[in-house]
């Protein structure tokens, strides 16, 4: 099976958030409570408007991530599960390889432009 432009590089945009959700669901429970950092609250692009210091359940963040494409929710999830966006991206890349994504590389949990 050959897909049109299957090896062409594209920025992943919001499709990144699907892998973010998968990795998060595999690494925490829905009732976990996460704290929003200043970095997460100030991320550019689409967001929910969550504030630094706010405590939110992972389940609510998951809805914000997938239904509203919240970059602030993505960063909050990544930081609370892995300690940083970079460390969470490593989990994403490992999982992507396990499910057969050979030409994918993720640098953050939200899909905003990153030089890598």
Q: Counting H and I runs of at least 4 residues, what is the number of helices?
A: 5
Mean pLDDT: 91
Beta-strand percentage range: 5-15%
- Looking across the biggest beta sheet, what order are the strands in? 1-2
- In terms of quaternary structure, the protein is single chain
Give the helix/strand class. Answer: mainly alpha
Instruction: Give the H and E element order.
Output: HEHEHHH
The parts where pLDDT drops under 50 for at least 5 residues are none
Distance between the termini: 28 Å
Helical residues, percent = 40-55%
Alpha carbon gyration radius: 14 Å
Task: Output the keywords.
116 residues, mainly alpha, 45% helix, 5% strand
Descriptive account of the structure:
The chain has 116 residues and is mostly helical. Helix content is 45%, strand content 5%. Helix 1 runs parallel beside helix 4 and helix 4 crosses helix 5.
Question: Could you provide a short overview of the structure?
Answer:
The chain is mainly alpha-helical and 116 residues long. The chain has helices at 16-27, 38-41, 58-67, 71-82, 85-98, and strands spanning 33-35, 55-57. The longest helix is centred in the C-terminal third of the chain and has 14 residues, at 85-98.
